[in-house]
Amino acid sequence: MIFKDALVHIILPGITIALYPIGLVARMTRSALLEVLNEDYITSIRSYGVSETKVLWKYALKNTLGPTATVLTLSLGYTLVNTFLVETIFSWPGLGNYVATSVTTLDYPAIIGVTIFSATCYVILNLIADLIIALDPRVRL
Fold first, then answer.
1. Chain center to CA of 68
2. Taken in order 14, 20, 21, 23, is the CA torsion positive or negative?
């Protein structure tokens, strides 16, 4: 019962927070996919008679993973840091509300701690993006 109530109350804030990254990643994936679909090797694969869905899922989307992973991880970091507006609107106690209160009360250790936490999250997310890009055999380390 409590889980159902929490799930119902997280739907609108979750959608509010997730709309920007979803749109950004979808737009980036689309533009990278359109660029890849015009390559010669895709034309060659199509000429062999491979189905369009297999061309799209097996050959084309694999090559859009690098730019899309970079945009995804950076937008996740941006979303993590900029949740204070959603927390304020929905009256949620969270990291954003904590930072806003710390800034207004000039709580310097809290501000520095959240800044270090945010920077660490960005570094870890960039590391994850670099590791995903390194999975591509065309990329040299």
1. 9
2. positive
Q: d(Cα 2, Cα 139) in Å, to the nearest integer?
A: 48
**21 touches 75 (CB < 8 A):** yes
User: How many Cα neighbours within 13 Å face the side chain of 77?
Assistant: 20
pLDDT tens per residue across all 141 residues of the chain: 888 988 888 898 889 888 888 999 999 999 989 988 888 888 898 899 888 899 888 888 888 888 888 888 888 878 877 787 788 888 888 877 788 888 889 989 998 998 898 889 888 988 888 888 887 767 665
Cβ density class 79-107: b for 16+ within 10 Å, e for less: ebbebbebbeeeebeebbbbbeebeeeee
pTM recorded for the entire structure: 0.72
